[in-house]
């Protein structure tokens, strides 16, 4: 094992998507800040590939209480109302930050921000930059970051948090060659994004492996609602290796229609009022049902069609979609797309208060790694808003942590080294374990769930977790650690799914017959900690 | 399912002296991308190093060279027999290159803290420059960066985006100049390899040079050229003979008229290398093509557009368009790659514009006797990148000489005002051509562009010939001498 490197800062931010970079920008105002990323900073995470938009009340005819109500209703009232209040109140100011920093959002000819309708909204409040909104945000954030004193570490993968007397004092990281880095900080911010790469079909980037959930859970933090996994209704189905790739909701926002193989606009059967712009949980189940019942397309999807729209509208508002499909031989100006549900977003995550404090002292969380903002189903356009609202809060609050005298915990360093070295004598390829895990999760903890399936899945995951992962040399440590985190994340999802004996939002238990609706549900959050798992019961 | 055999460049700087090529055969699904092939190989050899993140062409992590050309691994379709190499940047390991210094070098917008929105007009101008995913494919191919301190194409793209944004507090044109604004040869290679198809030379570099021009910062040598065009209509001073003085307005072919074209001769062929244009006319006479040469044509304006001196460009365009339109010409033939690219990309013409090699390919070559030489071909950038023509000149050359050998395509350094304005850079690039030419072992270097011919001749141990001159020889005639 090569010698480790120690890096001390006031604030440590883990993850370089929208939330992490926003947190680092904010934290840099109150002392030294380290931002680290498993990718080149700014290229990782899912923000950069987010397409559709950013929800914020920017029009006098709209109001924050409507944004609040839409978000709560869309989230099946499982959201933490205080977090939703913060999200909806602060989203406009955060989009204005981006504009001051140079973001180029689409504007109207009367010099206001363009807004398009997304699912589950009573007012079109999704601001956008074509269909590359997240990319626009990331380059803006990176430009801003370059003007701060944040110390950036590229291509460092964090695999465990470091604890001292019940307090998080930093994290262990690995570089590409397998060298150990010990990051010590007064406050640590987890902005590691989501984890739907645990599914075979997923929209997530390579980094969507749930590392933040797994590390924080192992460190003793509380996680909530991990069973709430959003399946986006429209992922690509062809080519096979690129299946799951996101086809933005903006396609439907711009007027795209869904049809089955019989040419029926099937949303009439599932939500005749909102049709294609129903919430994602509803549309995803509708698509899955059509496919399951034999009304699917040749590649096992449904049709998503914008060919009735003017070509110019498609070219200007959906340029990335147009370009991507052209690369796969489909001209969406004249032909329909084939789409099917794909694992997209984990609504659950680290339990936070409105200041992004987790249940562990010294540990903050923001973005998709945190839970509670979206309840049981996230509205399209609320995730980009969340990254900025809670990224800023996390960075700002982490910056206010007093300086602690920290003695790095040599015992933990030694045990981390021992774990890593153990991988050199493992016998199973982490790539193979990932492959199995993704299939197990897709079939056993997907859109429609039963107790029996989930129990079988749990047993299969337990078996995977007992395998001895192999690194052929230290450069393979990262892959082993990531796989371990994926297994832990998958188990959290399944544990939550078994605990929640109801259908609520994205979580559907076909084996449970319930006589309550979302508002009268007897259940609150599922709460998962290292020492136990439970579901909150609401008072009648 | 299909079997795909790929060759991958492997290199670990800690243990290897130099990269080695390694072959793999893997079974892939229909439509698989290069990245999927790499992922598959990774399951068999977890030490293979490469990057990927978004899988959707948006993060710019995964650019590699596929069969020599930069491409995003996540969007480029895999093909049997492909060769995958890292971008031409410092290699960290295998396909992973050091991107961070290049990304950090890109000039960044200065936050103004003023939240005013840009207007719709501002946004529509900025947007085409905003798609950059910082994959550095452009940086990996830029010739100017090889021999000067040029900060690179995407940095100039960023400077133009900044210049267009009313929120940017300062004027940064002087910064762009110190970063190498005038070192770009306008070879357009950056545009052709850009996965987002950003036309950096035309939409950023030339536009920044226009701003520099308005601020009086155009290089003196470039100003002289502009003055010459303004006063004479030509960018090259007349020598003993000019082509337009020497020839009749209509040149009839020897036999049946198969086709009629108008000829746009350009300043270099008119005043400095009229012999080459005369050779071309001889080829046309044999090929059955009637050539009409309007004498009222003037400089196409390329030397002005490339250097940002566009104040009277519309007058030149009008004159040239009228010269051909008045004679009812529907096809205008160019022989100078720079004029051709300009008429095709910078003009809105009521006639079609074709390079001489396109015309000959379409109409057919007269019977030729192969010249007993080994020839290599230098791709003029304004033909290869500006007009995307590479096949036709090679096909013609192959029929005209005994032996043809390839040479890697690379800018010779004469374009974009660099030969006049940055002679050291132009010479350094010319010397790189010399090295490549020598490696081919060819007797003769053939090209079409008069700028390339003139410049490479100064940096070559072998004679440089115009393709038309070679064709005249293959017709059994003597090339024109004046």
TrEMBL record, chain A:
<dbReference type="GO" id="GO:0016491">
    <property type="term" value="F:oxidoreductase activity"/>
</dbReference>
<feature type="domain" description="Fumarate reductase/succinate dehydrogenase flavoprotein-like C-terminal">
    <location>
        <begin position="436"/>
        <end position="518"/>
    </location>
</feature>
<dbReference type="InterPro" id="IPR027477">
    <property type="entry name" value="Succ_DH/fumarate_Rdtase_cat_sf"/>
</dbReference>
<keyword id="KW-0285">Flavoprotein</keyword>
<feature type="active site" description="Proton acceptor">
    <location>
        <position position="280"/>
    </location>
</feature>
<keyword id="KW-0274">FAD</keyword>
<keyword id="KW-0560">Oxidoreductase</keyword>
<dbReference type="Pfam" id="PF02910">
    <property type="entry name" value="Succ_DH_flav_C"/>
</dbReference>
<dbReference type="InterPro" id="IPR015939">
    <property type="entry name" value="Fum_Rdtase/Succ_DH_flav-like_C"/>
</dbReference>
<dbReference type="InterPro" id="IPR036188">
    <property type="entry name" value="FAD/NAD-bd_sf"/>
</dbReference>
<dbReference type="InterPro" id="IPR037099">
    <property type="entry name" value="Fum_R/Succ_DH_flav-like_C_sf"/>
</dbReference>
<protein>
    <submittedName>
        <fullName>Fumarate reductase subunit A</fullName>
    </submittedName>
</protein>
<dbReference type="Pfam" id="PF00890">
    <property type="entry name" value="FAD_binding_2"/>
</dbReference>
<feature type="domain" description="FAD-dependent oxidoreductase 2 FAD-binding">
    <location>
        <begin position="10"/>
        <end position="384"/>
    </location>
</feature>
<dbReference type="InterPro" id="IPR030664">
    <property type="entry name" value="SdhA/FrdA/AprA"/>
</dbReference>
<dbReference type="InterPro" id="IPR003953">
    <property type="entry name" value="FAD-dep_OxRdtase_2_FAD-bd"/>
</dbReference>
């Amino acid at each position: 094992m090569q010698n480790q490197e120690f890096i001390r800062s006031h604030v440590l931010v883990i993850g370089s998507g929208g939330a992490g970079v926003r947190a680092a920008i904010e934290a840099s105002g109150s002392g030294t800040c380290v931002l680290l990323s498993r990718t080149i900073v700014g290229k990782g995470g899912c923000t950069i590939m987010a397409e559709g938009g950013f929800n914020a009340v920017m029009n006098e005819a709209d109001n924050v209480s409507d944004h609040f109500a839409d978000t709560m209703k869309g989230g099946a009232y499982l959201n933490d109302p205080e977090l939703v209040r913060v999200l909806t109140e602060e989203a406009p100011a955060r989009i204005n930050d981006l504009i001051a920093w140079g973001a180029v959002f689409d504007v109207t000819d009367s010099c206001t921000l363009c807004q398009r309708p997304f699912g589950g909204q009573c007012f079109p409040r999704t601001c956008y930059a074509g269909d590359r909104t997240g990319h626009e945000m990331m380059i803006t954030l990176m430009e801003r970051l370059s003007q701060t004193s944040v110390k950036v570490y590229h291509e460092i993968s964090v695999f465990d948090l470091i604890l001292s007397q019940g307090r998080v004092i930093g994290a262990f990281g690995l570089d590409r060659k397998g060298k150990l880095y010990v990051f010590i900080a007064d406050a640590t911010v987890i902005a590691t994004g989501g984890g739907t790469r645990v599914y075979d079909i997923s929209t997530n980037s390579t980094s969507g492996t749930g590392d933040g959930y797994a590390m924080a859970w192992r460190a003793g933090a509380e996680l909530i609602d991990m069973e709430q996994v959003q399946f986006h209704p429209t992922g690509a189905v062809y080519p096979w290796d690129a299946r799951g790739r996101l086809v933005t909701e903006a396609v439907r926002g711009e007027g795209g229609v869904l049809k089955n193989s019989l040419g029926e606009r099937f949303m009439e059967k599932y939500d005749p009022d909102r049709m294609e712009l129903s919430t994602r949980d509803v549309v995803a189940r509708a698509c899955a049902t059509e496919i399951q019942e034999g009304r699917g397309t040749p590649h096992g999807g449904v049709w998503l069609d914008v060919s009735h729209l003017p070509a110019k509208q498609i070219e200007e508002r959906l340029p990335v979609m147009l370009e991507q499909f052209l690369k796969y031989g489909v001209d969406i100006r004249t032909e329909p797309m084939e789409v099917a549900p794909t694992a997209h977003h984990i609504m659950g995550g680290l339990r936070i208060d409105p200041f992004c404090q987790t249940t562990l002292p010294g540990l903050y969380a923001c973005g998709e790694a945190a839970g509670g903002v979206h309840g049981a189903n996230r509205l399209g356009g609320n995730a980009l808003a969340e990254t900025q609202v809670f990224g800023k809060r996390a960075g700002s609050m982490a910056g206010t942590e007093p300086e602690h005298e920290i003695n790095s915990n040599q015992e933990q360093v030694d045990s981390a080294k021992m774990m890593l070295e153990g991988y050199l004598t493992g016998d199973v390829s982490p790539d193979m374990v990932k492959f199995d895990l993704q299939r197990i999760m897709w079939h056993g903890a997907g859109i429609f769930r039963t107790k029996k399936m989930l129990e079988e899945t749990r047993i299969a995951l337990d078996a995977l977790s007992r395998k001895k992962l192999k690194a052929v040399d230290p450069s393979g440590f990262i892959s082993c650690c990531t796989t371990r985190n994926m297994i832990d994340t998958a188990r959290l999802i399944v544990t939550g799914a078994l605990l929640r004996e109801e259908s609520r939002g994205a979580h559907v238990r076909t084996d449970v017959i319930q006589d309550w609706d979302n508002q009268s549900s007897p259940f609150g959050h599922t709460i998962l900690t290292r020492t136990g798992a439970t579901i909150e019961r609401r008072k009648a | 399912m299909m079997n795909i055999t790929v060759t991958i460049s492997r290199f670990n700087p800690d243990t290897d002296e130099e990269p080695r090529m390694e072959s793999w055969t893997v079974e892939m699904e229909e439509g698989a991308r290069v990245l999927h092939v790499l992922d598959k190989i990774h399951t068999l050899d977890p030490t293979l190093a490469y990057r990927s993140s978004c899988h959707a062409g948006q993060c710019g992590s995964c650019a590699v060279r596929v069969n020599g050309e930069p491409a995003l691994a996540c969007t480029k379709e895999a093909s049997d027999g492909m060769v995958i190499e890292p971008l031409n940047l410092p290699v960290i390991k295998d396909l992973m290159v050091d991107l961070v210094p290049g990304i950090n070098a890109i000039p960044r917008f200065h936050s103004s803290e003023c939240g005013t929105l840009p207007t719709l007009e501002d946004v529509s101008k900025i947007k085409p420059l905003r798609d950059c995913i910082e994959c550095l494919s452009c940086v990996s191919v830029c010739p100017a960066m090889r021999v000067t301190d040029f900060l690179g194409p995407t940095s100039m793209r960023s400077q133009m985006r900044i210049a267009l944004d009313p929120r940017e507090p300062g004027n940064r044109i002087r910064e762009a100049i110190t970063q190498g604004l005038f070192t770009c040869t306008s070879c357009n290679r950056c545009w052709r390899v850009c996965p987002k198809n950003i036309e950096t030379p035309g939409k950023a570099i030339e536009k920044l040079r226009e701003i520099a021009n308005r601020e009086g910062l155009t290089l003196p040598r470039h100003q002289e050229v502009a003055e010459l065009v303004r006063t004479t209509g030509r960018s090259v001073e007349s020598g003993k003979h000019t082509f337009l003085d020497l020839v009749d307005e209509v040149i009839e072919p020897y036999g049946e008229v198969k086709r009629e074209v108008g000829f746009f001769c350009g300043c270099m062929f008119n005043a400095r290398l009229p012999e080459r244009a005369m050779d071309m006319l001889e080829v046309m006479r044999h090929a059955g093509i009637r050539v009409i040469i309007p004498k009222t044509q003037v400089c196409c304006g390329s030397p002005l557009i490339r250097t940002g001196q566009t104040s009277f460009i519309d007058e030149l365009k009008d004159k040239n368009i009228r010269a051909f339109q008045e004679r009812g010409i529907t096809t205008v033939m160019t022989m100078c790659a720079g004029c051709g690219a300009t008429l095709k990309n910078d003009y809105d013409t009521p006639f079609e514009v074709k390079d001489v090699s396109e015309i000959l390919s379409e109409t057919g070559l007269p019977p030729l006797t192969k010249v007993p030489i080994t020839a290599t071909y230098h791709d003029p950038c304004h033909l290869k990148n500006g007009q995307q023509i590479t096949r036709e000149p090679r096909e013609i050359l192959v029929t005209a000489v005994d032996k043809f050998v390839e040479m890697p395509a690379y800018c010779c350094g004469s374009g974009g005002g660099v030969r006049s304005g940055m002679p050291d850079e132009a010479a350094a690039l010319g010397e790189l051509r010399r090295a490549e030419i020598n490696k081919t072992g060819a007797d003769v270097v053939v090209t079409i562009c008069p700028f390339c011919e003139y410049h490479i001749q100064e940096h070559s141990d072998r004679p440089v010939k115009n393709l038309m001159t070679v064709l005249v020889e293959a017709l059994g005639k003597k090339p024109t001498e004046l």
